[in-house]
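Deliverable D4.2, example record:
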Amino acid sequence: MHDFIPVNIPLLDGNEKKYLNECIDTGWISSEGSFIKRFEEEMAAYVGRKYAIAVSNGTAALEAAVQALQIEKGSEVIMPAFTIMSCAQAIVKAGLVPVVVDCAYDTWNMDVTLVEEKITSKTKAIMIVHIYGLTVDITPIQLLAQKYNLKIIEDAAQVHGQTYKGKQCGSFGDISTFSFYPNKLVTCGEGGMILTDDEGLAERCRSIRNLCFQSTRRFVHEEIGSNFRMTNMQAALGVAQLEKLEATVLKKRKIGMQYRSLLGEIEGIRQPLEKTLYTENIYWVYGLVIENSTGYNAMDAMQWLKEHNIGTRPFFYPIHKQPVLLRMGLFQNESCPNAEIIAEQGFYIPSGVGLTEEDIVIVSNSIKEFSELIHKKS
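Output generated by the structure prediction step:
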């Protein structure tokens, strides 16, 4: 039996150690060091934004971004049903009401054709979330935002280096966010970033991340903020990771294409789309969806792969099915069938940038063995 293959292995083979040592040697390890500003400036330049605000993680980025918009409490924010809980949490914590839209079955991203019917007089913003390496179709969302005077919040946590119609993700929202969790294309271990072209929003985000201290009377507070500060050590990692982002994007796409080549067409298992009309898959993760007709679900496949020393992770659980939100009285009788199906049937396999070609072959062979079980049962 081969060694365990984890779902993610980061690569820290650039200037990470050099920059961390610089932090240690100079003593600048808190949120006051020079790497913070450098990371912000270089991330803003890469994405094509005027302002970037580094924070402690991607969830913090979302929460600060939504708070910074100062949307009237009780207003509605349209968001995808298929995404991580952080997105809904940021909306609810700001006193706003999340309204979910189902995903498309093939891209796993928000079905933009369903958004307009969800807009009411209470709608003030649309949150788009790029899922698993493909982007949302952004142009229709921009048109709706213009038509109804809505803000766009763009969660680009999974698509560092990805583009929509040739333009960098993270540049499309009134305010946009990234995460730097270990499985992201740029990682700081933990960390996040808010990007905007609005100077006022940028200033509000800087204030929110730092407990809303005032410049003249530091310990007198006019507003509730948070301690969302990024450390200089995290930023040092981020700078080193950003230096090799283009190579990381190429590696991710290579991993995706290797899986696609080795797996071929598998009866009963859907693989990610290679591209759409507006973007080419970056394969942040390589997701698989077991067809309902097989009689198997994602948990069956994940358990089988676990027994064969291969790590996996389930797809997101639908926002409108989250118990804590249901107990708040949200999403009563809401149905998003595509999100519900892929949450039950979808999972992803090892696809971190530290994955070797031998690992990819082993995982692919194991998937094909599992597909044979599906074929025999059917």
